[in-house]
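Quiz preparation item.
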């Protein structure tokens, strides 16, 4: 059987991580099975510029941390869908302080900005995250970028980030994708998984354009 695109990509990008992700998967799934609430974030880009609540570009790291801490309890599960730090953010001491402030039992799905030489996977583990290239749990598969439906591994929904709240799916065929983005429209708060599914069923996440 032909290997799926996601496995080929992960073997190329995260070969060392794939040797240990079975243990991380088991622990993450135990957390999800026993956790109180499940909260989702994506594309924080700490150290970079984002739009604030007034629609102006500025560093909104403090807004994101404050909103996360107000929303997520220590007993909750918090899944960040990748790209925690901006490409040019190399102040590891400052970044670590910010990541340690985030609450909950924390899972990081690696994005395209993670795994850099100066910010290896081990760095995020030191900040309290279970780190995975992707995570399949019950009817959900969590990833950074939207997946091709052939890579859903039997899941109903693909929970992802990467396209920053956009609704144009140009690289993959749209099928039950739920795009997570903490921004000024939701006061930078994480999204509850159950709420995201309810919003999906009401059409909130449907794309503007898609590949068929």
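Solution:
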């Amino acid at each position: 059987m032909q290997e799926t695109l996601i496995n080929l990509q992960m073997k190329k990008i995260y070969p060392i991580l794939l040797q240990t992700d079975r243990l991380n998967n088991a622990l993450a799934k135990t957390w999800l099975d026993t956790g109180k609430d499940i909260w989702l974030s994506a594309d924080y880009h700490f150290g970079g510029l984002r739009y604030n609540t007034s629609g102006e570009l500025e560093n909104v790291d403090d807004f994101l941390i404050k909103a996360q801490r107000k929303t997520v309890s220590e007993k909750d599960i918090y899944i960040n869908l990748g790209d925690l730090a901006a490409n040019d953010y190399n102040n590891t001491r400052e970044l670590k302080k910010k990541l340690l402030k985030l609450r909950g039992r924390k899972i990081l799905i690696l994005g395209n900005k993670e795994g850099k030489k100066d910010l290896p996977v081990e760095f995020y583990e030191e900040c309290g995250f279970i780190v995975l290239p992707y995570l399949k749990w019950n009817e959900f598969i969590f990833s950074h970028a939207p997946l091709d439906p052939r890579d859903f591994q039997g899941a109903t929904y693909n929970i992802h980030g990467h396209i920053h709240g956009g609704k144009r799916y140009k690289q993959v065929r749209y099928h039950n994708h739920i795009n997570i983005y903490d921004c000024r429209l939701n006061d930078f708060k994480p999204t509850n998984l159950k709420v995201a599914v309810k919003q999906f069923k009401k059409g909130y996440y449907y794309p503007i354009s898609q590949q068929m």
